From TrEMBL:
Name by which UniProt lists this protein: diacylglycerol O-acyltransferase
Domain O-acyltransferase WSD1-like N-terminal residue range list: 5-273
Organism, as annotated: Mycobacterium alsense
Reactions it catalyzes: an acyl-CoA + a 1,2-diacyl-sn-glycerol = a triacyl-sn-glycerol + CoA
Domain of life, source organism: Bacteria
EC identifiers of the protein: 2.3.1.20
Family affiliation: Belongs to the long-chain O-acyltransferase family.
Amino acid sequence: MTAFMRASDAFTWAMEHDPRLRSTVVTVILLDRPPDWAEVRQRFDVISRKLPMFRQRVVQSPPPTPPRWEPYRDFDLNYHLRRATVPAPGTLDEVLEMARVTEMQDFDRARALWETTFVDGLEDGGAAVICKFHHALTDGVGGVQIAMHLFDLSEDLRRVEPLPPEPAAAGSGLLGGYRDAVRYDAALIGGALMGAAARVPRLMYDSVRRPVTTIRSAAITAASVYRTVRPINRTGSPLTTERGLNRRLGVHHVPMPQLREAAHRCGGALNDAFVAGVAGGLRIYHEKHGVPVGNLHISMPISLRTKDDGMGGNRITLMRFDVPAGETDPARRIEAIRRRTAAVRNERSLPYTQLIAGVLNLAPRWYIGSVLRHVDFVASDVPGVPVPVYLGGAAVRAQYAFGPTIGAAVNVTLLTYVDTCALGLNVDTSAIPDYDGFHDAIVAGFDELLSMAE
């Protein structure tokens, strides 16, 4: 059967009628020298043949069926792989400016949803790769899996596997699309009925034998679903309330051993310290502008990926909750975030993520958009490559990921590489016009945490 978008991906896809809510992800890889670009191109070719969505476009289906992935005859690898030279003086700032412009541009929706630019001309003879992809194509962990098909463990080029055959282009016309949509809807309804048939007798039995327990369990589940979809009518921040189309990208490096040590001293994990550092930076930014701040609304990606899931693909759900950004004690802030994050990871609504997204797809877009634009920040922690790697014979110096703001004032994405936490800052400049002050505040927020590890 035709591959249809998951309900959660269809939700984010539909939200993009508002360009402020685009789900575009950009990654930047810095290399010590120009790699063998022909070799790198061939590896992208292999990936595009092994992962169907890299050669597919998104096609609308008859409502209420979600959009579907469809191979097309006009796929051109050279369209998706470009070459560029960074303007002098060839610093990271020039690369980030190229990435910023790339991140703000929408995809050509008649084509596959990814682009890669090979960049020459960096100072000290370096090079860079700027990758842009839609979040429906892959999540952070899936992106790292894909990257490992590009990277080597030494500068010696490994033998590239023979090219798989090119995927066949779609042959069905309009009627074929309708047939697939009808089959999809029928399968969905059939699955729901079978599920109900399996659960209703058990529910009736439990209602008779343990009525109080059954009602309590149902109420807890309903409350969890409400927390997942509850409306947010205003930002937690009284300062960063505007939303616009322009972005500013920035980076910051944090040593992973020290950040993890700071977390462990407070009974938390690396992710708890990461979120605490971002929250602390936001508090300092508000203080610089003379505005008090308390709790802030965060969207955090929660991975639902299992060992049976293949390479790539989007297997996350976004959970929203509040964090105590106004807490000045970094240890207490980590402890509070640890408790709240643990509660979110154990929400009963998580197994129903796709069902919830399917229901939300029926809600008015203006309503959902207004909810997303009241989230204060997004924080995403992506475990990267733990050892030094090479791309086309060139050593990877650093890697950065810039996740989408999807309506928030800023997205801060942590991507680890060896023993470094690389932070990618994607800032909505309408919400945070004082970028330099914000960057300094983020640095100070993490310095608060690192001081606990000394």
